[in-house]
Write a structure and sequence with these properties.
This is Transglutaminase family protein. By secondary structure, the chain is of the alpha+beta class. It is built from five helices and 16 strands.
Length: 288
């Protein structure tokens, strides 16, 4: 078991006092079999009234409402978690799904719903051709196929930290042959869905104490990866950016169908069009 402290601070600065609209906060680590949330606290300056809800994917989402104008907004999230994920996990995949292609059970097929559906247009079938090249024959080992697919993303695409908002489409990433962790996650998830797998995108934090993993120059940072559903084993984590499988070193916060829904903080303001000056994000992940 590894006990980790996570601090995620976001600061917005404005030229003039502005009125803040409601802000959506997805910052609370997601509890599960491999993660115990010991404590979590979110504070803001100026002070906000926080109301909590659970979204369709069982993510904890807070809405912050502010009463007073300000020229600076700071949101500070602090959490302590116990991470128990194994470094070299063994997955008990059902016999029916060990070999690809396989069919999900009727209930699994229905429940996975949109997590099975590709999201990006591929008019020239270039993306489909790239994905199908990983299927070596008409029948292949399922887990090996997913490992090859994840490895193919990291081997063929150069990791590049990108501060700009938004995410590249799979075709854009293949064209420029570089991307951030969220671009890697979208590419892998779309490829898995194209092959018929149920896949969800996960946002959270990467713990990188030795700074040996791709995706972070420091001991920790925000990060994105993918879970793929296999009968028997359930959700299996693949991180094509750091070339890993399983949840070791990963602290999930939210699971989503579309990467656009995984933004940690979103909201708006009422004021002059040129009021916004800057946004600064600081993330610290350390072992206790």
């Amino acid at each position: 078991m590894t006990k980790l402290s996570i601090r995620h601070t976001t600061t917005y600065r404005y030229r003039y006092p502005i009125a803040l609209g409601p802000h959506r906060l997805t910052l609370r680590p997601r509890e599960g079999r491999e993660l115990l949330l010991v404590s979590h606290d979110v504070v803001s300056w100026p002070d906000a009234k926080m109301s909590w809800a659970t979204d369709v994917f069982a993510n904890a989402v807070a809405t912050a409402r502010f009463a007073e104008p300000t020229d600076c907004l700071k949101i500070d999230s602090k959490a302590v978690v116990d991470l128990t994920s194994a470094a070299w996990p063994v997955f008990d995949i059902a016999a029916s799904a060990i070999t690809y292609p396989f069919s999900y059970g009727e209930h699994e097929w229905k429940d996975l719903g949109g997590l099975r559906e590709v999201q990006y247009p591929d008019p020239s079938n270039l993306f489909q051709q790239w994905v199908r090249a990983f299927v070596r024959s008409g029948s292949t080992d399922t887990l090996s196929l997913l490992k090859d697919l994840s490895g193919g993303v990291s081997n063929e695409i150069t990791y590049q930290s990108r501060e700009a908002e938004g995410t590249q489409s799979p075709l854009e990433t293949l064209a420029v042959r570089s991307g951030s962790c969220r671009d890697f996650a979208v590419l892998f998830a779309e490829a898995a869905r194209l092959l018929g797998f149920g896949a969800r995108i996960v946002s959270g934090y990467l713990f990188n104490p030795n700074q040996m993993l791709f995706g972070s120059r420091d001991s920790g940072t925000t990060h994105a990866w993918v879970d793929v559903f296999l009968p028997g084993a359930g959700w299996i984590t693949f991180d094509p950016t750091s070339r890993s499988m399983g949840g070791a070193n990963l602290i999930p916060v939210a699971v989503v169908r579309d990467i656009a829904h995984a933004v940690p903080i979103s909201g708006g303001f009422t004021g002059a069009a040129n009021a916004f000056v800057s946004m600064d994000v600081a993330v610290e992940v350390s072992e206790l």
